[in-house]
Amino acid sequence: MSPPVASPTASSTSEEVPWRIQGAVYGIGLFSTSIFHIAAVIVPLYAATMTSSPLMFGLVFSAAHFLPLFLSIHTGALMDRLGARRVMLVCTALGAITPLLYPAFPWIWALVFLQMFFGLSESMGWLGAQTMIGQLMHGKTVYAGRMSFIIRIGHLVCAPLAGISWDLAGPWGGFVLMSLWGCGAVVCALLLPRQPVDPDAPPESRRARVRALLPNASDYLTAFRLLGVPAVAIIVVLGALMHVGNAVQGSFYVAWLNEMGLTGTAIGLLGPAAAIGAALFSLLTAKLMRYVGGLWIALVSLWAGILLVCATPLFGSYFLLQMAMFLRSGANGLAQPLVITLVLRGAGRENQGKAIGLRGTANRIASIVSPLAMGAIAEAIGLEHSFYVVGAMVSVVMIGIAVYLWRNPQIARAGED
Hints:
- It is a single chain.
- With 417 residues, this protein is mostly helical.
- The protein has a single domain (16-195, 209-412), classed as MFS general substrate transporter like domains (Growth Hormone, Chain: A), CATH 1.20.1250.
- Helix content is 78%, strand content 0%.
- The chain has helices at residues 9-12, 19-48, 54-63, 66-82, 84-97, 108-135, 141-191, 206-213, 217-225, 230-249, 252-259, 264-268, 271-282, 285-288, 294-310, 318-347, 352-381, 383-407, 409-412.
- The longest helix is centred in the middle third of the chain and has 51 residues, at 141-191.
- The two termini are 29 Å apart.
């Protein structure tokens, strides 16, 4: 059976999406991604008060990706069947409640356990926002670019607020901030259009409704078949490698800055540089695609972003750290709309949730393996050298992809507008 192909109407329609729908989708993306930036400051500082083992430290951050690893495709399939609003209401509510439990149970294994459910909420909220770019917004790069720009507003303020809340009020201050931010995603989910009900459809039994909520093997098979589309397979791999850099930044990067003597506020104030860089670069994606293949843009920009975070020990001043963060996030912002839209276009309209779920699954694998592997490397050769080893390993994969695209120019042009 051949892989699904993209629906021509998914990207060619000229219908303008109402701003109420756009705002709700962008809002879910904003709150679901920026809560990660709060957690990227608060959770490492909190974990550092409980353990000095790099491997255990890595486990804390890997745990946030355990449930999304198994449930990303299933959640995407549920959005294909039930609509995004219902699924988003459950996931965002989980994200608003879970942070309040962190300081209430101040033990390392409780932290690992709670990270699993917080990670599920944060990941599925972002997965839902990406899926709705396809379901409600025709899979257009311009909408993905707008969302990539708007979510940086949260990134601009969240990390500084997280650092200040930690310095002023400790763990409770940081985790209450996370909970309040999660409530914003709940409000946006309530603003989404309701799923239409077919009046001619026969009523389902309770057993059938419960069965529809359970994971289905056919959904997973359909999702994995999408890897038969070369452009989809490459962008899934590139997206996973981007999460290697994100995992480093959200764990050992903060630990390194803490060892340098930076306060929580100083660490948080690196966030505005990241947000500004990503916002500015994300608006250039659609224009740049007129001249360069989408996969080449994604490859080069993501590679640069990973190298910049892995070079962190070389930046001995706060100014250089700010510049590196600006450029790294700018590179990720340039690639992010492509990582979303190229997968959606290759999947076909009926499988967009599954396609984003497939990408989410690959991202979770990278996010689980990266902190654990880096923790093991750090215990063996030291934290500084572990940054360089991770950068070298990612570069080997990136070079392999670049050679493949060079030899297959028709695939490299995928996604050109």
